[in-house]
Design a protein that fits this description.
Radius of gyration of chain B: 24 Å
CATH topology of the largest domain in chain A: D-Maltodextrin-Binding Protein, domain 2
Number of domains of chain B: 2
Number of strands of chain B: 2
Number of domains of chain A: 2
CATH topology of the largest domain in chain B: MetI-like fold
Strand order of the largest sheet of chain B: 1-2
Structural class of chain A: alpha/beta
Order of helices and strands of chain B: HEEHHHHHHHHHHHH
CATH class of the largest domain in chain B: Mainly Alpha
Largest sheet of chain A: 7 strands, mixed
Strand content of chain B: under 5%
Chains: A alpha/beta, B mainly alpha, C mainly alpha
Shape of chain B: globular
Largest interface: B-C, 76 and 80 residues
CATH architecture of the largest domain in chain A: 3-Layer(aba) Sandwich
Helix content of chain A: 40-55%
Oligomer: heterotrimer
CATH superfamily of the largest domain in chain A: Periplasmic binding protein-like II
Distance between the termini of chain B: 38 Å
CATH class of the largest domain in chain A: Alpha Beta
Chain lengths: 388, 286, 282
């Protein structure tokens, strides 16, 4: 496969020449070329061993300090990428995992979080900008980012009032995952999800500790919009959630451990986590609900008071490299909005129905709405549900 | 008299740093929390100045967190006491002097790994790959232990056992063994000796231990969060949630104020009830 | 009763055993065991964030313990000379500071400090000399140390006061009769007698501060202490690195315990020797 991006896979002479021509034509980046051919690794090794031979990329990293803090979601990065970044730049990354956008916002709002890069979701960006919590990005410091190869559906929310505040990470859907060995009835919708929870699967369902997805799922099950902030609709959703609470296994956004250990049979789930579970345990099946759900895209953003700005830019640039993105995708199963990455992916991934759901399913999904982030009604519903 | 003036000056100087600390780190935060508890939630979260009783009016929506806390904390304290007492008794009365110290130290050693890590170990033990998988081998399929109230109680006992063992051990240790002998010489059955001699004498230790454990359990957050799967909510969890998810500072403040008042009332009552059993002296041991 | 005690010890140690066992796991996930390896120890020790968290925890715990031993002791000495409403007020404050749950202290301190800083920072900036970067107050080591010290200081006061009350007054009187200055009396008589309580207070304070999660979680700002690091590791999917950290901390504490024990034992021996020679001399 000429388009293989897998690391350390030997490349044939013909493929090498193909890639070299693509590079000369300018259709792929230098870094992509180096990555694909394995020359990148060789150069990096040489570069660190012989200072005089340091590549331009290594120079671009320059002295960017030795640490940065990344706040992100569970199971959302290829550890190989993180380790390689540390090796090539000397920057150690502390990864903090969060289970909801609200939690990230709360931490930033309280001040002095000390984060350098974090991963907010599309619908939160406008609020962050309004509150002055994230900074405009200097795209000249992220040469690997190419706005022209981005799918505007997913990348769009990053541009606010003509300024770019974030760069796309991945996108996906919010559906649910189920263990088909345990649940045989084949639930297809959120309505089925709650029926099974309160029926045959009682005691084995996980919902997120996250207002958007958990309230959203209940709203969809009742036939309302995923994003509703209507008081009457929210009250009904709350009733459904509280009724299902005794039948839940847990309320947590880190649902993989529970699913893997067999304690939980069904969980609200994001695409890539569904893919990860399915890959390791074929009985795990990811479902995009027929009665709605979420379509989302996540971004890398930099807090206004990021203490290690140079490291943050180095990281953003590194993560925008199509080769690195592809390697991330391979590990966590979340598609990117960058067409350069798609071009590098093997056919079985591009045609994966988990990752790229059918059109008719996609059309029922909604992007999260900014109002849900700050709506006091939704905040209270999820809080009352948890303390019920 | 210059002497007493000098004494007063010295006393003031000795107390000055502590006074400063109480002012800045205790009184100021409590005052701010009380003020905030009468405020409003800002549109994007946080605090907006106001004077309203809305937050207190909303307390009923966290009723379950209150009832949970007020059930689990006394229950957990009682169970810890029941588990700890025989051990403390054994250590204080039965064990040979040579081993006493070692065995006592072994009770605290687990305390030196972080509560977080110890609680995490229980997630594994009670989770699907722990005890339930062993039970499955002998034919009990699909037993669920993790994320149940039982799991939370086990975590509570495990977390605070040493705090209960120690004070009881100390008061039993002080117990004059000749009293026990005298009681049995006078024909008291071991049971009667225990009820009439040992138990009353170990009362101060029990009082102290229960208070320590109870206070800690009332503010507990980690154990229900980890072993209750986010389903069993204490006031502590509701508080963390309000500050770290809903960003509703005023309501969180009202909840905090209420928790503190409940605790003040309960602990004061408890101490009133238990004075007379030499609480005073034992408290200073704590 | 012996069997019961053995059962309780098992209850106490099975989780510890599991933590230690999994620290030698060569696999990536803490929950399935794949073989023995020391690699997570290496990883933990070469991870700058672990070392930084450890350093923070040590600095914070040591400072809090030191501050509270000093302030707690001076306060206990002062309170012992006092009577009346002022003393009652202090007793009340001590009682409240011990009783308030850590979570409330954490939250209250956070919102109070954030509010005060928001008021102070613009003021500081306006007063600051032109052209220089003004001092900005923010959450950090100081706020954690201060918040921990509130609780541990009260703990030390209680311990030291108990000791003072149990102290032999006749020695002090004797010392005064012999025209020793108050400073001399304190140094030669009072301090040695209350020292064990101060030491116990120091150690308790250190332990409390080192293991505290919830207060630090709210007021540490960007700093990470060891418990905060462990908490975020658990949330992002625990690796055996955390077990390795726990095992190492346990090992070091055990080592210190044994060392202190040996030290005390040799000291005790000296003491008993002296007592023995004294009584034989009579």
């Amino acid at each position: 496969m000429s388009k293989s991006y897998k690391e350390n896979q030997p490349i044939s002479a013909k493929n090498f020449m193909d890639e070299f021509r693509r590079y000369q034509k300018g259709s792929v980046s230098r870094r992509h070329f180096l990555g694909i051919t394995g020359l990148g690794t060789a150069m990096a090794v040489l570069g660190t061993a012989v200072p005089g031979l340091a590549t331009r990329d290594a120079h671009a990293f320059g002295d960017v300090g030795n640490k940065m803090i990344l706040s992100t979601w569970p199971n959302y990065h290829n550890p190989v990428n993180i380790e390689e970044f540390t090796k090539t730049t000397g920057v150690n990354i502390q990864v903090n995992a969060f289970g909801s956008n609200e939690e990230m916002l709360a931490k930033l709002q309280a001040g002095g979080a000390g984060w350098d890069v974090f991963v907010p979701t599309n619908y939160t960006l406008s609020t962050y900008v309004e509150l002055g919590l994230i900074q405009e990005l200097d795209l000249s410091r992220i040469p690997n980012y190419d706005p022209n190869t981005q799918n505007p559906t997913f990348a769009g929310p990053a541009t606010i009032n003509g300024k770019v505040y974030a760069i796309p990470k991945n996108w996906g859907t919010t559906g649910f995952v189920l263990n088909t060995d345990k649940i045989k009835s084949g639930p297809k919708s959120w309505k089925d999800f709650f029926d099974v929870t309160m029926g045959a699967g009682s005691g084995h369902t996980i919902v997120h500790d996250y207002q958007l997805t958990t309230i959203g799922a209940a709203l969809c099950a009742l036939g309302f919009s995923f994003n509703s902030v209507d008081q009457g609709e929210l009250a009904q959703a709350e009733k459904l959630l509280i009724a299902s609470k005794p039948h839940l296994f847990a309320i947590t956004s880190d649902y993989q451990p529970g699913m893997r250990s067999g304690d939980a049979w069904m969980s609200i789930c994001w695409t890539g986590d569904g893919k990860q579970l399915h890959t390791d345990m074929p009985e795990m099946s990811y479902v995009v609900a027929s009665d709605g759900g979420e379509l989302w895209s996540d971004f890398y953003a930099v807090p206004t008071d990021a203490p290690h700005l140079d490291a943050a830019y180095a990281f953003l640039n590194y993560m925008q490299d199509p080769y690195i993105q592809a390697r991330d995708f391979e590990s966590h199963g979340y598609p990117t909005s960058d067409s350069r990455v798609d071009a590098m992916l093997p056919a079985d991934i591009v045609n994966d129905p988990i990752l790229y759901p059918a059109k008719e399913l996609m059309s029922g999904l909604e992007f999260g709405a900014a109002k849900t982030l700050t709506d006091p009604g939704r905040a209270e519903v999820i809080a009352r549900f948890k303390s019920a | 008299m210059t002497g007493s003036k000098k004494g007063l000056w010295l006393t003031t100087a000795l107390l000055a740093p502590t006074t400063l600390w109480f002012l800045v780190m205790l009184i100021l935060p409590l005052v701010v929390v009380v003020i905030f508890s009468f405020g409003d939630r800002a549109p994007t979260g946080g605090y907006a100045a106001a004077f309203t009783f809305d937050q207190y009016a909303n307390l009923a929506s966290r009723l379950k967190a209150f009832t949970n806390t007020l059930t689990y904390a006394p229950l957990g304290t009682l169970m810890t006491l029941l588990v700890a007492y025989p051990l403390a008794y054994y250590l204080a009365v039965k064990v040979d002097e040579r081993w006493k110290l070692l065995l006592l130290v072994l009770v605290i050693v687990p305390f030196w790994t972080s509560l977080l890590i110890r609680t995490y170990a229980w997630i594994f033990i009670l989770g699907g790959r722990g005890i339930p998988s062993l039970l499955a081998m002998i034919g009990f399929e699909d037993v669920r232990l993790i994320n149940t109230s039982g799991a939370v109680l086990v975590g509570m006992i495990y977390g605070y056992l040493p705090l209960m063992v120690f004070p009881i051990f100390v008061s039993l240790e002080k117990l004059d063994k000749r009293l026990l002998e005298a009681s049995s010489d006078l024909g008291g059955s071991p049971f009667r000796t225990f009820i009439q001699v040992t138990l009353p004498l170990s009362m101060p230790g029990m009082v102290t231990g229960c208070m320590l454990v109870f206070i800690l359990l009332m503010g507990e957050f980690l154990i229900p969060a980890f072993l209750g799967g986010g389903k069993i909510f204490f006031i502590g969890n509701a508080l963390v949630d309000l500050f770290l998810q809903s960003r509703n500072w005023p309501f969180g403040s009202a909840l905090a104020v209420t928790l503190v008042i409940i605790m003040l009332v309960m602990v004061t009552l408890y101490m009133r009830l238990t004075t007379g059993s030499k609480t005073e002296r034992d408290q200073s041991v704590m | 009763m012996r069997f019961y005690s053995i059962a309780v010890y098992l209850f106490l140690y099975v989780p510890i055993g599991i933590i230690i066992l999994f620290s030698f796991n060569s696999g990536r996930h803490a929950s399935d065991f794949q073989g023995l390896s020391l690699k997570w120890y290496g990883k933990a020790l070469s991870n700058p964030f672990v070392l930084e968290a450890l350093t923070s925890s040590l600095i914070i715990a040591f400072s809090a313990a030191l501050l509270s031993s000093i302030m707690g002791t001076t306060a206990a000495l002062a309170l012992q000379r006092m009577k009346g409403p002022v003393k009652a007020l202090f007793d009340g404050l001590i009682y409240v500071s011990i009783m308030i749950p850590g979570i409330v202290i954490g939250i209250a301190t956070l919102i109070a400090l954030v509010t005060v800083f928001d008021l102070m920072n613009p003021l500081l900036a306006s007063l600051w000399p032109e052209g220089e970067k003004p001092l900005r107050l923010s959450l950090g080591y100081a706020s954690v140390i201060a918040a921990h010290t509130l609780f541990t200081m009260s703990l030390v006061i209680l311990l030291v006061r108990a000791r003072i009350e149990g102290m032999d007054r006749s020695l002090i009187e004797a010392s005064q009769d012999l025209y020793a200055t108050p400073a001399q009396t304190f140094r030669l008589i009072t301090l040695p007698q209350i020292f064990p309580a101060i030491l116990a207070g120091f150690l308790l304070s250190f332990t409390f501060s080192f293991d505290d999660f919830i207060i630090s979680f709210f007021v540490a700002g960007p700093n990470t202490t060891l418990p905060i690091y462990v908490f975020s590791s658990i949330r992002r999917g625990i690796t055996p690195e955390v077990n390795a950290i726990g095992t190492m901390v346990l090992g070091v504490s055990l080592f210190l315990l044994v060392a202190v024990q040996l030290l005390l034992r040799s000291k005790n021996k000296q003491k008993t020797n002296i007592v023995a020679s004294n009584s034989s001399g009579e």
